[in-house]
Specification:
Two copies of one chain form a homodimer.
Chain A: H1 3-10, H2 13-16, H3 20-29, E1 31-35, E2 40-42, E3 50-56, E4 59-65, E5 68-75, E6 79-81, H4 83-88, E7 95-98, E8 102-108, H5 109-118, H6 120-146, H7 149-164, E9 168-170, H8 175-181, H9 186-196, E10 201-204, E11 207-210, H10 213-220, H11 224-227
Antiparallel strand pairs in A: 1-8, 2-7, 3-6, 3-8, 4-5, 4-7, 9-11, 10-11
Helix pairs in contact in A: 7-9, 7-10, 8-9
Chain A binds a DNA duplex (30 and 30 nucleotides) through helix 9.
Chain lengths: ~230, ~230
DNA sequence: TCGCTCGCTTGACATTTATCAAGCGACTTT
DNA sequence: AAAGTCGCTTGATAAATGTCAAGCGAGCGA
């Protein structure tokens, strides 16, 4: 494990407060691996042998049932997944697959649970992390249940605008995956983009331009209790 | 605070492992209150002044946006809500309202955070609780995104069957709220019940009889990674 | 460069779900 | 008992969303 990776991990809120010796113990069992795109890292139902930390690239979390599949979230550096299963030693509820070439740290779940049991600061950091994850999923549920697909797309675009800090930005994922993430079909996403044109949204390939922010916001009605990440 | 309530709370997984003195500290600031039906206990967006523990009755957690409203969950004794907001000191994402006459313990959030900061066992118990909540919401999202409303109802009925341990049971909530919880309108729930008749579901008012479990299960295709609570 | 693949788009159509309006029936109130 | 309320149901209709099939076009490899 190169020193720079060690520091990246140590700087994560999840690991920054724990005792040095416990962090060292975790790092001793850890190893870094490079994965090509489209590699399955975990399959739902599996027992969580490792806590994953993504250092570079991106990972798709998705779920399947009865031949259908839906994208649940995208994980980007530097962060961990899937923590809840590792700590609880319960089966994965989501599968994970690299979207691009990715560098990922694997921490044996048993080590994580051992340190969790003896390091209170680590336990508290996990609480903060899980509480954030929990709140994110609740927001996602509200988005799904309270909004139409057009409204979900409009609010998604506003969130991306805020993330990029510009009225002009590129989509960070394939449209087909965005569709799945937003709970609709690719065909419908295509139509939804057209449907937002009257509200000042220009789309060319992956490039989005919001030409009338007020108009879009008036339609989307963004709400901090659904759309503000980390709030 | 009567002694019996104290014990009910102490026996909750969330509080059973913590140091006695810390538990006492929490209880000193706590008070029990009886609420009539349909009382708002918390409104989404509010700051969480109290961690709530429900001793009897039932509480609806729901969310609103743009004039629409959806039921997110029902809390039943003995359990806590809304923990994540209290710990994070972040605004409620859901509103809470008593469904019936309910007895509820209010623990000042600041006290909870104070004890959380000094009691590692309490922190670990919170992790377990939050991880469970998180996994429940993930399952709910999968249910919503991967299934049609008819399939959601069918699987809901199978879950209730398992809870009651019988092929015959009463619905534990009003149909209108069940509809909202399952992400559909009351009209559609009515039609969905009819749609399940061919699969061996008999409905009379709140009373449900599953006359052909195999048939229903063949249609519903229940999955532990969506339907098993606490797994 | 040609031709292929693949994701995206479009149109026609089917299905699912919501909306609106009316009526039913249990329960409450007077 | 009569009238009213309220939740549930039903039917007609509309809107949203999904499916299927075809075609477009950028990027890639032969």
């Amino acid at each position: 494990m190169p020193e720079s990776h060690r520091d990246d991990i140590r700087n994560l809120a999840l690991f920054s407060d724990m005792a040095e010796e416990n962090f060292e113990a975790l790092m001793r069992g850890a190893y870094v691996q490079n994965f090509p795109p489209r590699v399955d890292l975990a399959v739902e139902g599996d027992t969580p042998d490792f806590l994953h930390i993504i250092l570079s690239g991106s990972v798709d979390l998705f779920s399947s049932w009865n031949g259908r599949e839906t994208s649940m979230a995208t994980v980007r550096p530097v962060s961990t997944f899937i923590l809840a299963a590792s700590i609880n030693d319960a089966p994965y509820l989501m599968s994970a697959r690299t979207l691009e070439k990715s560098r990922i740290v694997l921490l044996p779940s048993q080590d994580v649970r051992d340190v969790f049991m003896k390091d209170g600061d680590f336990a508290r950091a996990i609480v903060t992390e899980l509480a954030q994850c929990y709140r994110s999923v609740i927001k996602n549920t509200k988005d799904l249940k309270l909004r139409t697909s057009l409204e979900r797309l409009a609010n998604y675009l506003l969130r991306q605008k805020n993330r990029s800090g510009s009225l002009e930005f590129d989509l960070v994922m394939e449209k087909r995956r965005l569709a799945s993430f937003l709970g609709m079909t690719p065909e419908n996403l295509s139509r939804a983009f057209k449907g937002l044109e009257p509200y000042g949204v220009k789309v060319q390939g992956n490039h989005i331009v919001i030409t009338d922010l007020d108009d879009l916001a008036r339609f989307a009605r963004p709400n901090p209790l659904i759309d503000d990440h980390h709030a």
